[in-house]
Design goal:
Layout (H helix, E strand, L loop, with lengths): L1 H18 L11 E2 L4 E2 L5 E2 L5 E8 L2 E11 L7 E4 L12 E6 L2 E6 L2 E5 L10 E5 L5 E5 L6 E4 L7 E2 L4 E5 L4 E2 L2 E6 L2 E12 L4 E6 L3 E5 L20 E7 L3 E8 L6 E5 L5 E7 L4 E8 L37 E9 L5 E3 L4 H9 L4 E7 L2 E6 L6 E2 L7 E7 L9 H30 L24 H13 L11 H9 L2 E3 L6 H8 L38 E3 L1
Antiparallel strand pairs: 1-10, 2-7, 3-4, 4-5, 5-6, 7-8, 8-9, 10-11, 11-12, 13-22, 14-15, 14-21, 16-17, 17-18, 18-19, 20-21, 22-23, 23-24, 25-29, 25-30, 26-28, 27-28, 27-30, 31-32
Helix pairs in contact: 3-4
Length: about 550
């Protein structure tokens, strides 16, 4: 095995030296010139050491390698830009990045994997330089100030300070900030941010077509639907509109701060700042704020509803025993791609759906009859503003056999959500009372477990539970997570920062005998308050400022 490995390594070296006949780039340089190449573990490093370029893979997919620009001063490997995001290579030792015919080109065994594809006459003097701002620039000679090509014009999922997301008025093309396919696959995902130049607003789209969020129009200082931008003590925002292009850019007042915008796999645009003290990216804000506003994020339906194969044949509404039936969902934001059907009544609309084996739902109101064929995408609850409509979802007749059981499930789900929050709060009270040194870091988390578990638990999951429990009972309601965020935190989609200790819990720990809970008077007992050891309820106090979550 060792002989085969050594032979392959020697072959790779021979491939680099003799096939390309190029000198290897010196480690730590920020430039590739026309007579140099980069391969294997070699890297470019920007002059001040902030960014680094080289071959990298993803921890969950070690077989695929990419030419990446990464943060060099961030302890958590974070990719800022990828050249070949849609065409990975399998062996970094047989691939080479070099200047060829005036372009920066990635070759894998003589095959072009990626190129800047620019027409440049001065091929012998062309160089590629990695800047301190994370911009990879191809230019004609070291002293040239005019780039032939630059990575800032071709962003992937990360928008760095000094970069721009623009609309080119001459070519009528958009620059898009496009999410990864998933957390382990950097190829183009479904979510993208782009600029609508006519209205001076940024929008997020799903699959390049469905726009589900807008930042609002630029008012000279901020985008109107992103009020967080008014807190500009960190960022300097600029909107440029000229005859050639329209774009938005930003810079940092304090150049030592490491910050970025990311079009996340969650379908949200996020602004993040690196905190070396915690070793993680801190979420400054994300839009849309609520996960449920992301188009088709939950896939088919967007709600946890079980479907079946529709029954066909004699499917009139009158045939009640064997046909499918419809479950009523009031106050819904209806999905797209409906078909209008001529019908003068709810019954007629239902029959039209039943007569089509592929119909999954219908809606009937003053606008007439609408039916949906196939998947229902982006089905959401509507706010109580009068815009919601009633959707009738097609289900098998057997689903209705237990009558009120379905509604009981829905009510139970809502009650369960409330119970989870209360339970998390009570769990944290117990945790805090048993071990105060642990929801501020550094203590023995396993000491909180029931001794019968013999410390058989995942430490990271236990930390998440303790943290989110404390966030759920923060003094200020605005700092408490939504149930959707709680689920995401517990699933590991969102990172949760250490919370501040609520003042109510602090008082409980310091003087538990003086804490008064509300007493249930419905049983006819005395109205005298009980101590914390003899009753249950909730405590509320006021205000502290915190930041709860950061993206993983």
């Amino acid at each position: 095995m060792g002989v085969r490995t050594n032979s392959y390594f020697i072959f790779s070296l021979l491939f680099l030296f003799f096939t390309f006949n190029l000198p290897i780039i010196s480690h730590g340089s920020d430039t590739i010139s026309a007579n140099q190449s980069l391969s294997g573990d070699q890297t470019l490093v920007s002059a001040n050491g902030t960014f680094k370029l080289g071959f990298y893979n993803q921890p969950g997919n070690s077989s695929n390698y990419y030419i990446c620009i990464v943060y060099n001063k961030v302890s958590l490997r974070t990719i800022a830009w990828i050249a070949n995001r849609d065409k990975p290579i399998s062996d970094k030792n047989s691939a080479v990045l070099k200047i060829m015919d005036g372009n920066l080109v990635l070759l894998n065994e003589s095959q072009i994997i990626w190129s800047t594809y620019q027409n440049s006459a001065a091929s012998s003097s062309v160089v590629a330089v990695l800047g301190d701002d994370g911009n990879l620039v191809v230019k004609d000679g070291f002293n040239s100030t005019q780039p032939i090509w630059q990575s800032f014009d071709f962003p992937t999922n990360t928008w760095l300070p000094g970069g721009k997301i623009a609309y080119n008025k001459r070519t009528k093309t958009h620059q898009n900030l496009t999410s990864w396919k998933n957390s382990e696959d950097p190829s183009r995902g479904l979510f993208s941010l782009s600029l609508i130049a006519e209205t001076k607003e940024y929008v997020i789209s799903w699959n390049g077509s469905e726009q589900y969020w807008t930042g609002g129009s630029w008012n000279g200082q901020i985008f109107t639907l992103v009020p967080e931008m008014s807190q500009n003590y960190i960022y300097n925002f600029t909107y440029v509109d000229n005859e050639n292009e329209s774009y938005f850019t930003y810079s940092l007042y304090n150049k030592t701060i490491i910050s970025r915008f990311v079009m996340d796999v969650s379908g949200q645009i996020t602004q993040q700042t690196w905190l070396e003290t915690t070793g993680q990216w801190n979420l400054f804000w994300s839009k849309p704020r609520e996960q449920c506003k992301v188009y088709a994020f939950c896939g088919h339906l967007g709600l946890a509803i079980r479907l079946h194969c529709p029954s066909c044949g004699n499917t009139s509404v009158a045939n009640q025993e064997s046909t499918d039936k419809f479950y009523e969902y009031p106050n819904m934001g209806l999905p797209n791609n409906s078909l209008s059907v001529a019908s003068s009544s709810t019954t007629g609309c239902a029959s039209s759906c039943l007569n089509n084996c592929n119909c999954t739902a219908y809606s009937y109101d003053n606008n007439g009859c609408s039916i949906w064929i196939g998947e229902l995408v982006n089905l959401q609850l509507s706010p109580n503003d009068g815009t919601g409509r009633t959707l009738y979802l097609r289900l098998a007749a057997s689903e209705f056999s237990k009558g009120k059981e379905n509604k009981g499930i829905i009510i139970g789900a809502v009650a369960g959500s409330v119970a989870v929050v209360l339970l998390l709060g009570l769990v944290f009270i117990i945790i805090w009372k048993r071990q105060r040194s642990v929801v501020v870091e550094g203590g023995d988390l396993f000491s909180l477990l029931d001794h019968r578990l013999e410390k058989n638990a995942d430490e990271e999951e236990l930390r998440r539970i303790a943290r989110v429990a404390c966030w759920c009972i923060q003094d200020d309601e605005n700092h408490r997570p939504t149930m959707g965020q709680v689920v995401q935190i517990l699933e590991g989609v969102l990172e949760v920062n250490p919370p501040r200790v609520p003042r109510s819990l602090q008082a409980f720990v310091e003087n538990p005998e003086h804490i008064v809970f509300f007493t249930d008077l419905s049983s006819g007992q005395s109205s005298q308050p009980q101590s914390a050891d003899h009753s249950t309820a909730s405590i509320r106090a006021s205000s502290t400022s915190s930041t709860m979550i950061s993206k993983s």
